[in-house]
């Protein structure tokens, strides 16, 4: 078999491989994308959000305009014109803002001392929710809590709504529960999430088998080294794997290997070579450069074998490392600014009233100022 | 994706109502395929969506197998969650109870085979069903058996996670659960399948305990009281007690209990109902058991006995929701 | 002189001069190309690397190791004739069933005899050989068909014999098993009777009668049961007999597939065993995994009693490590959309 069999379209045998099991998961079918696809979806969701916010604004705007004809007749063309008032959130800003909020999920989960599984699922729910929704429709604050609450239930870590809301500031059970169904619907009613943590543990075990048994692959690879590597990789998954977009582009085992690779490329590459190039010989022999022809036939583990797969895998892992680090960082001020915009997009009435208030105050000041001058 | 979907299906009549769901029969408009719609009430519970509903949706969305009930679609209507399931007119309990139907050994083999295939698929996906019993094994019009009701299912989690021992309907509950075990495995499902296998041969429940205490007594009277020697570490389980010590049954006693069973059938039955979960066979070795290779061959699903004449018996569809 | 030389020839390899007297385990082999006798170790030495010329001076025929065989007949001429006959009969392999007339069949056999005689005695050998080769070429397909038919028969016979042997064995096993159980039962009964006699004030005759009654009932039911088991065996035996099996198979040609493909037989990993002694302080584990966190649970009796196994934890993680490793989303999703 060659790696061509691996594209999913040409599999002839009816045997269901472990890869096929993954291909059948909703995570692969509904929640895995090419980069272009993801970009397109996000763009259209942002557009949808803008349309929604605009419509909401228009409705409120017309009403207030009718109510306060005097001030609008004065400023309607300038300060109170729609163009000046409306400042919606761009795609870029939206991404930054969500990134800022997703860190709160980790904080909240840690606060409740929830297991990694719950934290990671909540994060996945949150990211999936905002693929098809915009912060201009649903403010991330409550969505975040709802995701966490739902993830806790889904991962068998049930917590009653009252004890959940109690320590959260200004959050009523209703705020969380009202969104539960909407979140579930946006998740297309799929709530099984495959994470890279257990695959990582599997690799921790398999590294030991491949690199240490029956004797160490090289003198400097020890169980302690592999143990350290595992710990670093776990931290990597928490720091880079959770927040970035990699879970949309790569499968959990690939992300796990990326975590290993970025933590120690040398040992990880050694593992991959021995695993997939059947390089069981010591490094100093020429075996390493063996052509894939002979190799590919012999090894009985993964179906597609040889350098082709090895290359594809290493390429994929490296890309995954790269992608994990291109998340949208933002400063606190930036986030606060976007947060403000987000608030007004969701509450146009407050935006308009604030402006009117400001204008009235200004007017009052202008009227007062001659008197002030007298004093 | 919400309101439109409602028009894709018709709800024709109500066939059952439970604490958290109502079941309707209906059709998929486009294909005219018969379907069942399980409408789950939301907003009824203090803590939001019910755990059983969450589990059912979670696992059925992932499992696609000939012997697992198919979740065709999920949609929402007026804030209710609707599960569109394939229509399955009958279940194994109804067939077992219908004394007018004769089970041939090949029929029993066929149902057991289909059950094990479905269970194997769940286990391969790391999912425990935790409520296997005849009335959760539904029968499709073409004779295929489908495992249903995933309201108690869960995936096996972290190595040190506690699981609830209060699972599985009493008569099908494995001894480790009766002893309050919190770190049990796929073996609890295998036990249940073993007990169902016995019930198929006997045509009456094999271990019908009157209550949880009686269940222990019934189980051990039939299969012997577990001790440290035949089940190492059993005495460390939370609720272990061995007040009444029954000897394990001899092969001869088992033979008399299941007079029509072949030796291979008894081998498989005994291997699925081992008291010590570590000795119980798993779904893979059960499927590879010689019982399935010896003759008679399993009946093809289409030729299996069906509910006598009456295709749509009301009572058969009023199952637990 | 001659006799002694012949005798010595029988006992000494002409190539390496090993003497049977000194190496009593020595075996001679011959190759039907030239029938020269060579000892086994010489054959190994000379022909292991590929075809080589016969080491006898003036012979030099190219010989292959796999064609060497033990000499069966003392007389090399007979050995040769037998080989020739074997070869000819695989080509002229019709059986009596292939002839409508016995006379034709006899004619056919006689023809075979002539060919064998000619080849064995070098009478018109080259022509006969050419004829034989031509016949084989011309009738290739029929010959093969007949060969297959024959081997099928042989296999059936072997299968049948095997089945009979197995049936006997099974019956014996069950009988022995039941006898053992009976013995056990009798012992138990005797003990019960003794207990009752010593502990109860019932009539001793009644107790004994009841016991006899019980064992009579039991032995009757046992007989019926043995009969039933035997019937079952016979029935499965019937089905194993080649002819009968075909009838069954024709009804349903699809082979039994217990998993219907829902299984990976070859795992992408080699799982090590759980450590024998779980010692979290030892970090060099031979042929097992080192993992203090998980391994500590293997000491927990409550876990173990519930069926929890370290191996299951390992297996689950390893399964998931390879679940989707070969799934390249970017490529596969692109392939799907185009």
From TrEMBL, chain A:
Residues 103-185 form the Cyclin-like domain. GO terms for biological process: regulation of transcription by RNA polymerase II. Keywords: Cyclin. GO terms for molecular function: cyclin-dependent protein serine/threonine kinase regulator activity. CDD domains: CYCLIN_CCNH_rpt1, CYCLIN_CCNH_rpt2. Gene3D superfamilies: Cyclin-like. The keyword Lipid metabolism does not apply. Belongs to the cyclin family. PANTHER family: CYCLIN (PTHR10026). This is Cyclin-like domain-containing protein. It comes from Candida tenuis (strain ATCC 10573 / BCRC 21748 / CBS 615 / JCM 9827 / NBRC 10315 / NRRL Y-1498 / VKM Y-70). The lineage of its organism: Eukaryota, Fungi, Dikarya, Ascomycota, Saccharomycotina.
UniProtKB/TrEMBL annotation, chain B:
One of its GO terms (biological process) is filamentous growth. Residues 9-292 form the Protein kinase domain. Its EC number is 2.7.11.23. GO terms for cellular component: cytoplasm; transcription factor TFIIK complex. It holds the Pfam family Pkinase. Keywords: ATP-binding, Cell cycle, Cell division, Kinase, Nucleotide-binding, Nucleus, Phosphoprotein, Serine/threonine-protein kinase, Transferase. SUPFAM superfamilies: Protein kinase-like (PK-like). GO terms for molecular function: ATP binding; cyclin-dependent protein serine/threonine kinase activity; RNA polymerase II CTD heptapeptide repeat kinase activity. It is found in: Nucleus. ATP binds at residues 15-23, 38. Residues 300-321 are annotated as: Disordered. The active site is at residue 131. Belongs to the protein kinase superfamily. CMGC Ser/Thr protein kinase family. CDC2/CDKX subfamily. This is [RNA-polymerase]-subunit kinase.
TrEMBL record, chain C:
GO terms for biological process: nucleotide-excision repair; regulation of transcription by RNA polymerase II. Gene3D superfamilies: Zinc/RING finger domain, C3HC4 (zinc finger). Transmembrane segments: none annotated. The keyword Zinc applies. GO terms for cellular component: transcription factor TFIIK complex. One of its GO terms (molecular function) is zinc ion binding. Its main location: nucleus. Residues 13-58 form the RING-type domain. It is found in: Nucleus. SUPFAM superfamilies: RING/U-box. The keyword Transferase does not apply. InterPro entries: MAT1/Tfb3, MAT1_centre, Znf_RING, Znf_RING/FYVE/PHD, Znf_RING_CS. Keywords: Coiled coil, Metal-binding, Nucleus, Zinc, Zinc-finger. Residues 134-236 form a coiled coil. It comes from the Eukaryota. This is RNA polymerase II transcription factor B subunit 3. The lineage of its organism: Eukaryota, Fungi, Dikarya, Ascomycota, Saccharomycotina.
